[in-house]
């Protein structure tokens, strides 16, 4: 469990970027953090990953205090950034993934690399050079690199902002698969459709968490997104409009298959009532 308590943050010579942030993330949850540019999302992500030093407030991860156990916390939390090009060190995929595993024995390194490449559907590319991959594939390698370190918590800071739509979908599938495997994920995003992947969404505005919306509340609380300048995710918008027309689709999640099933059910009910 991640616990963020009374966290405030300012850079040297800046005003407060984060103001009294409080929330917790349960194991196995996917949390989306959304907010306009400059609202403090990345700063919050870097504080939780232990990359930026916490000065005010407390962050505990599985009862370890980030100000005391930074080394253990860095082993538990992996972070992936927006631009994979800025993170790649080696050209060879094996070198890239094994670099931070170099203290492990060779067979363990092989195991971890194989498993993590399979988790991001990139195993077939293992002998390719990184420069030959698309940006989306490079980002999947960056996710594999984090997974190979066996983290429990994964922070994704706008992982798909630079990636084409096909690559985005692949990464969305990876996020959902990782959730199924029990990883806890914080996805910082400015793409509203990624809200639909999350169990809960936090809206950050001017350094403050101004709203928390659970997945099942989105249909009734969508206006809060609009209020803070966040576009309503397309599928949610369709649901909202149908509801206004008196059609209340009973969907399990925001997947296309869930929509198809709900629409078929609705059409069958209508036919029967005619
Ligand atoms: N190293 C730094 N020194 C000073 N100010 C900074 C630094 N990094 C970020 N800031 C400022 O802190 C504020 C919050 O930045 P942050 O990157 O956390 O926001 P964000 O929500 O991730 O924005 P974006 O959507 O553009 O990624 C911005 O005003 C930014 O200019
Ligand atoms: Mg950012």
Structural class, by secondary structure, is alpha/beta
Provide the CATH topology of the largest domain: Rossmann fold
Task: Label the overall shape.
Answer: globular
Name of the CATH architecture of the largest domain: 3-Layer(aba) Sandwich
- In terms of DSSP E residues, the strand content is 15-25%
Order of neighbouring strands in the sheet with most strands:
6-7-8-3-9-10
The termini sit apart by 51 Å
Number of helices: 9
Q: pLDDT under 50 segments (min length 5)? A: none
Largest sheet, described in full? 6 strands, mixed
Number of strands: 10
In the residues, how many domains can be counted?
Answer: 2
Binned, the helix content reads: 25-40%
CATH class of the largest domain: Alpha Beta
Radius of gyration: 20 Å
Averaging pLDDT over every residue, what do you get?
94
Strand and helix order: EEEHEEHEHHHEHEEEHHH
Chain oligomer state? single chain
Ligand names: adenosine-5'-triphosphate, magnesium ion
CATH superfamily of the largest domain: P-loop containing nucleotide triphosphate hydrolases
Describe what this molecule looks like in 3D.
With 274 residues, the protein is α/β, with parallel strands linked by helices. It folds into 2 domains: 2-230, 3-Layer(aba) Sandwich (Rossmann fold); 233-274, no CATH class. It is built from 9 helices and 10 strands. The strands form 2 sheets. The chain has a 6-stranded mixed sheet with strand order 6-7-8-3-9-10, sandwiched between helices. Strands 2-1-4-5 form a 4-stranded antiparallel sheet, with helices on one face. A hairpin with a 2-residue loop joins β4 and β5. The radius of gyration is 20 Å and the shape is globular. The mean pLDDT is 94. Bound molecules: adenosine-5'-triphosphate and magnesium ion.
